[in-house]
Design brief:
The protein has about 110 residues and is mainly beta. The strands form two sheets. A five-stranded mixed sheet has the order 2-9-8-4-6, with no helix packed on it. Strands 1-3-7-5 form a four-stranded antiparallel sheet, with no helix packed on it. The longest helix is centred in the C-terminal third of the chain and has 4 residues. The radius of gyration is 14 Å and the shape is elongated. Pfam families: Motile_Sperm (PF00635).
Amino acid sequence: MALNIEPAAAKFAAAGGSATHHIVNLTESRLGFKVKSSNNEHYRVKPVYGFVPPQGKTAFEIIRLNGPPKEDKLVVQWAEVPADEEDPQAPFKAGAQAGEVILPVKSE
């Protein structure tokens, strides 16, 4: 796997909360990422798009809004990007995607 998420799962109170996770690049290439949610009503992610340097990591925040307990997931899609790419959305608008990692999120 070229990319991991640490920690590999997220748990929130149904009343809401936030957590910071890291997208970890295990390759020698620069990667762009996009985070998608199965529940946009109760979850917010910052940033949605970004870059991870070779062998590096980038933090992202998950915010859970108040709502009924439920199991959901975040999908982190990734693609290799050139070092001079400045727009993290560009590869995904062009249809690039090399893989994805699923982060289970649960509220109780």
